[in-house]
Specification:
Blueprint lengths: L4 H10 L7 E4 L5 H5 L7 E6 L11 E4 L2 H13 L16 E5 L4 E12 L4 E7 L6 H7 L4 E6 L7 H10 L5 H19 L2 E12 L4 E3 L3 E4 L8 H4 L9 H8 L3 E4 L4 E5 L2 H13 L6 E4 L6 H12 L6 E8 L4 H15 L5 E7 L2 H10 L4 E4 L2 H12 L1
Parallel strand pairs: 12-14, 14-15, 15-16
Antiparallel strand pairs: 1-4, 2-3, 2-4, 5-6, 5-8, 6-7, 8-9, 8-10, 11-13
The structure holds guanosine-5'-diphosphate and manganese (II) ion (MN).
């Protein structure tokens, strides 16, 4: 789960990381009322979306007065923000953050994340922070400095000094930087984060450090122990189909291809996607309907796959171990009758009552092709999608 910038900044504040003062406009009607609570006449207006790159997409505006701020805020609410991280459809703006402007000396990049390779927390910093950090990482990786923290010894002063020196910080800035790193470390662990990023961490014109942007990703598997964080969830920012799938306890992830996949079991789902790719196709999703699935769940899963208009063909691959294939067939038939299908569907059933299930599908009069061999099914669906 991702947090918005303003939510991340609330957490920053609580852990002692300096951030500018600000106020949240939670709906366009409240624009003037909220602006009236802001002291500074000049403000920064920031669209709250779960994506970076807002600055280049018109989602961050420095304005001279509250009238301009109101205009910008209303414009942001009325439009979706499209950045290189969102895809063409962009994201809706459900709130706008108003902030007192900061006088920028220079922009630093600082983040902390779980590094799977070393199995440690890794801090990453660069003096080339700001809106072009992706290019810096790609073209001049030597400008990115990292340290990893052993979980037994925890973060130490020398870690902080090493990065601070690499960033050419001096005097009291080094102490301020160390305080920020310790706060980040504590925040990360206390909230089961998977990534925290400050870009830019600004050295102000008068030489102090302040976090101008804030991004926090949380570990979904640990959210059950953070009721306070779960309340910060903004469903409007999440993939619609993934949110819908979660409601039905379906394990679904949107992908870029055009072959819808419905499979029971995560391992079989991965193997199915591999086989589709092997035969020249691209999966439109990962979907595990679960081991002990029911006809209703199959129907929901089917509707979900078909709601994606990228999908040009569907492959259903069910191994009936716990579940009976005739029940699956019933679910498929019901779903197809309910939602209708305009794309070819290939069904591969194997295991308990497979023959019975395949027979039901053949007898249904619906235009489904059936297979009992997975390779044959994968080839058929790839051909059908073309
Ligand atoms: P992002 O593009 O989504 O990462 O949004 P940021 O919050 O990082 O803002 C983008 C850029 O806007 C920053 O890198 C700054 O250069 C600029 N910016 C943001 N806030 C201020 C501010 O208070 N003062 C000034 N001068 N520039 C700002
Ligand atoms: Mn940023």
């Amino acid at each position: 789960m991702n947090l918005h910038e303003y939510q991340s900044k609330q957490l920053f504040s609580r852990f002692g990381i300096p951030v500018p003062d600000g106020a949240l406009i939670d709906s366009p009607e409240n624009t003037e009322t909220v602006l009236a609570t802001v002291n500074s006449e000049k403000v920064v207006v920031k669209a709250q979306v779960h994506a970076g790159g807002r600055g280049k997409a018109g989602g961050v505006k420095l304005v001279e007065d509250h009238e301009q701020a109101a205009t910008e805020a209303r414009r942001m609410f009325a439009n979706r923000i499209v950045t290189k991280q969102t895809g063409e459809a962009g994201l809706p703006v459900s709130s706008v953050w108003i902030e007192e402007p900061t006088d920028i000396g220079r922009e630093i990049y600082l983040s902390v994340l779980v590094d799977r390779e070393t199995r440690r927390l890794l801090f990453m910093a660069s003096s080339a922070g700001g809106m072009n950090i992706e290019e810096v990482a790609a073209q001049t990786p030597e400008k990115i400095h990292t340290i990893t923290v052993h979980p037994a010894s925890g973060l130490q002063g020398f870690h902080c000094r090493k990065l601070a020196f690499a960033l050419d910080l001096e005097g009291t800035q080094i102490r301020e930087f160390q305080k920020i790193m310790f706060a980040l470390y504590e925040l990360f662990i206390a909230n089961d984060a998977s990534l925290i990023e400050i870009n830019p961490l600004v050295v102000t014109a008068d030489g102090h450090l302040i976090a101008l942007d804030a991004k926090i990703n949380l570990d979904d598997n640990a959210l059950y122990r953070h009721a306070d964080l779960l309340e910060m969830r903004d469903i409007s920012q999440e993939d619609e189909r993934e949110a819908k799938a979660a409601e039905h306890d379906l394990n679904y992830i949107t992908l870029d291809g055009n072959i819808g996949c419905m499979v029971n079991g995560a391992g079989l789902a991965m193997a199915t996607m591999d086989l589709v790719k092997l035969h020249g196709g691209l999966p439109a999703n990962f979907l595990d309907v679960g081991g002990g699935t029911t006809a209703e769940r199959v129907a929901e899963a089917f509707k979900l796959i078909l709601s994606d208009d990228k999908v040009k063909a569907v492959l259903v691959n069910i191994f009936g171990g716990i579940v009976r294939c005739d029940l699956i067939a019933e679910g498929i038939i019901n779903a197809v009758k309910e939602v209708g299908i305009e794309v070819p569907v290939v069904v591969r059933l194997e295991g308990t009552n497979a023959q019975q299930g395949l027979q039901m599908l053949d007898d249904s009069g619906l235009s489904l092709s059936t297979a009992s061999d997975l390779t044959e099914a994968a080839k058929a669906v790839v051909a059908a999608a073309q």
